[in-house]
């Protein structure tokens, strides 16, 4: 297998989910630190437009979104599956709710002025971040949560987690982790990363103990690689075979040039030739002078592709 290259930045919560999953499975990985805001001249040539963080590059294949990264990693490395048959439905549904709903409570809670800690190194950085995320939010269909909705949503979740873990189980669904543990972990990590909420987990003893276990997975850094090196890796490699090429999109048979991307927020799409669209994923083929041919993969849930 080609090296696993994570394009991420330290403060990104979904990146923390990916880092924890890679380390939990004992996988060695390379770390390309990208800027927290655009431009990202060494990442966009790989994705072709998709700009959410993180993405996982494996040779000339690019896996977008941590839901798909989890599916890709699930048979790599060691340790239990993220998707055990007996709790798959519950774990997957909980993970999706956390990643798309609780996430917005986390954003509101983390960016309260008194809970920001050292997130921004300067007021200029904060201003540039606000301008960047205003661009990022164009076309978003998501309603941002005010604090009076975010706080009780999170408090309820913590109380439910505490109840679920208080029988002494190691992970949310029993003795082995599932994808839900990694989704819950990254959101909690973000909320309590600095500022006034840093110690706020203390009253929840079972969650606290679980959190420390999960945090140990996030702690191992990848081996540094520059963005330019990562693009060279893509250029020197050819994409992995896609297997059966199929499309369930009525207006876009295999081979159609499509724009593929998220439907909820950060909707900037990637343009390419459709190779696969089924219930599991969307894959497009694209080329760039700095990468050669690459295949870019998205999950199907929360993503779409439209004919250009
Ligand atoms: N569902 C996506 C969410 C990714 C996401 O929202 N990432 C945030 C950073 S934690 C982001 O992209 N922010 C804007 C940016 O980094 O440009 C995933 O699981 O990867």
Structure description:
The mean pLDDT is 97. Strands 1, 2, 3, 4, 5, 6, 7, 8, 9, 10 and 11 form an 11-stranded mixed sheet that branches. The protein has helices at residues 13-24, 44-47, 66-73, 88-110, 123-136, 147-165, 179-191, 205-218, 227-235, and strands at 4-8, 30-33, 55-58, 61-64, 223-224, 246-247, 257-262, 270-277, 281-288, 292-299, 303-307. With 308 residues, the protein is α/β, with parallel strands linked by helices. The chain is built from 9 helices and 11 strands. The chain folds into 2 domains: 4-78 and 222-307, 3-Layer(aba) Sandwich (Glutaredoxin); 85-217, Glutathione S-transferase Yfyf (Class Pi), Chain A, domain 2, CATH 1.20.1050.10. A hairpin with a 3-residue loop joins strand 9 and strand 10 (292-299). Glutathione binds next to helix 1 and helix 3.
Secondary-structure content class? alpha/beta
Mean pLDDT: 97
Main sheet summary:
11 strands, mixed
Number of strands: 11
Distance between the termini: 34 Å
Shape: globular
**CATH class categorisation of the largest domain:** Alpha Beta
Percent range of helical residues: 25-40%
Encode the helix/strand succession as letters: EHEHEEHHHHHHEHEEEEEE
Count of discrete structural domains? 2
What integer value in Å does the Rg equal?
19 Å
- Distinct ligand kinds: glutathione
Task: Please state the second-level CATH architecture of the largest domain.
Answer: 3-Layer(aba) Sandwich
Proportion of beta-strand residues: 15-25%
CATH topology heading of the largest domain: Glutaredoxin
Individual helix count: 9
Which stretches are poorly predicted, pLDDT < 50 over at least 5 residues?
none
């Amino acid at each position: 297998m080609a090296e696993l290259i994570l394009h991420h930045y330290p403060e990104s919560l979904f990146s923390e989910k990916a880092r924890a999953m890679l380390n939990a499975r004992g996988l060695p990985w390379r770390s390309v630190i990208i800027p927290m805001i655009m431009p990202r001249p060494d990442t966009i040539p790989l994705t072709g437009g998709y700009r959410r963080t993180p993405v996982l590059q494996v040779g000339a294949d690019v896996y977008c979104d941590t839901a798909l990264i989890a599916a890709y990693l699930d048979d790599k490395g060691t340790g239990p599956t993220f998707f055990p048959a007996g709790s798959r439905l519950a774990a997957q549904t909980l993970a999706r709710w956390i990643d798309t709903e609780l996430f917005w409570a986390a954003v509101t809670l983390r960016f309260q002025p008194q809970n920001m800690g050292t997130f921004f190194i300067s007021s200029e950085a904060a201003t540039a971040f606000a301008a960047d995320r205003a661009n990022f939010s164009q076309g978003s269909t998501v309603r941002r949560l005010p604090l009076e909705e975010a706080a009780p949503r999170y408090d309820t979740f913590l109380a439910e987690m505490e109840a679920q873990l208080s029988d002494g189980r190691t992970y949310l669904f029993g003795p082995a982790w599932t994808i839900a543990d990694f989704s819950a972990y990254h959101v909690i990590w973000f909320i309590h990363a600095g500022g006034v909420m840093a110690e706020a987990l203390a009253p929840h003893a079972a969650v606290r103990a679980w959190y420390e276990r999960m945090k140990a997975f996030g702690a191992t850094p990848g081996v540094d690689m520059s963005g330019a090196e990562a693009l060279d890796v893509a250029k020197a490699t050819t994409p992995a075979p896609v297997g059966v090429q199929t499309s369930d999109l009525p207006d876009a048979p295999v081979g159609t040039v499509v724009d593929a991307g998220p439907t909820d927020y950060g909707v900037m799409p990637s343009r390419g030739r459709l190779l696969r669209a089924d219930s599991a994923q969307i894959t497009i083929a694209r080329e760039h002078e700095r990468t050669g041919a690459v295949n870019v993969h998205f999950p199907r849930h929360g993503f779409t592709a439209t004919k250009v």
